[in-house]
Specification:
By secondary structure, this protein is an all-beta fold. The protein is 0% helix and 46% strand. Strand 17 and strand 18 form a beta hairpin. The chain is rod-shaped.
């Protein structure tokens, strides 16, 4: 008589299938398609570990939820802890470019601090500020009121220099400076033009202010003044050493005053401010620009002895300034 023996076997699996088709590791009640639970509740417990063929840990997820990539046997100390030593840790290919109006600026810059933590970098305002705190030009002599510039010829352009000296108070925009020893402005020859170079394309706002004063040449010159002159402040862009007016702001200088404000007919000693405000859009890098004064009309052939200057008004501290900001 044959006997049949029934031997019961019990298989205990470390993964279970619930009726919902969810798969669980170390849990009898998986709540997701794949539910992995750490075997204990300590922070060092790894719920997931991936090793390469050399048994080196490549990736791990610990009980706290922190994820470590390429950190060896160390525990991840941040939500995502990546060791980038000797490896390109993130690479994106064929990403679409963000072009307006698909996005709305401004954006914040994402950076990494010395501890490896992500930080939002502050947005730097790009600007240039130049302030001349001396009379200009330096060759002007208050003894005989000459050595400055004349104001009588519409074909003469007087350069207003922006230079890298003590007057440069700020330059976060990274403008550079130079001199054209020989140049033309609207077809007229000008020597030693001090210019600046705008490094990046964009929209820039320019504000210039200067105080013009013309004193009596040699303290003896007789004039026949009628009372006012028209002066242009010229903002010019350049191609090579050829400058062309981009915008012009016209101001009026009133005469017939001495240093004390008394009415006279032999002096333009009363200071008059010239102001220019302009917005420029550049579409190419390294755009050269420069500023000039230009006599337009009034008092013909009077101020011909270089008796004019950019001066510091009484109670002031600046003969001229220029502020440039990038939008």
């Amino acid at each position: 008589m044959n006997k049949i023996f029934l031997i019961p076997f019990t298989f205990v699996s470390f993964f279970l299938f619930a009726q919902s088709s969810n798969v669980g590791f170390n849990t009898a009640t998986p709540t997701a398609t794949l539910d992995v639970v750490s075997k204990s509740n300590t922070s060092a417990t790894k719920a997931l570990e991936i090793n390469n063929s050399s048994a080196s840990e490549l990736m791990k997820v610990i009980n706290t939820g922190n994820v470590g990539i390429n950190i060896g046997t160390s525990m991840p100390t941040a939500l995502l802890d990546v060791n980038s030593a000797a490896i390109l840790n993130i690479r994106h290919e064929n990403l679409p470019k963000l072009l307006s109006p698909a996005y709305t600026p401004p954006f914040n810059k994402l950076g990494v601090d010395a501890s490896g933590n992500n930080v939002i970098m502050p947005v730097t305002v790009k600007y240039l500020y130049y302030q001349q705190r001396s009379n200009y030009p330096a060759t002007y002599s208050p003894t005989n009121n000459t050595g400055g510039f004349s104001l009588y010829d519409p074909n003469q352009y007087i350069n207003i220099p922006i230079i890298n000296d003590a007057g440069l108070k700020g330059n976060s925009a990274g403008f550079t400076f130079g001199t054209d020893t020989s140049a033309t402005v609207n077809g007229q020859s000008v020597s030693n033009v001090r210019y600046i170079v705008i490094p990046e394309p964009g929209v820039y706002t320019f504000e210039a202010w200067g105080s013009i004063r013309c004193n009596r040449y040699n303290n003896t010159q007789n004039y026949s003044f009628s009372g006012q002159m028209n002066i242009n402040t010229v903002f010019a862009t350049a191609s090579g050493s050829i400058y062309t007016s981009n915008t012009v702001s016209r101001g009026i200088i009133n005469a017939n005053r001495d240093n004390f404000g008394n009415t006279v007919n032999v002096s333009y000693a009363f200071s008059n401010a010239q102001i220019l405000k302009h917005t420029l859009q550049t579409t190419v890098p390294n755009q050269k620009v420069a500023l000039f004064f230009q006599y337009v009309s009034g008092e013909p052939n009077q101020l011909t002895h270089n008796e004019c200057l950019l001066n510091i008004p009484t109670g002031g501290d600046t003969s001229y300034y220029i502020i440039i900001t990038k939008s």
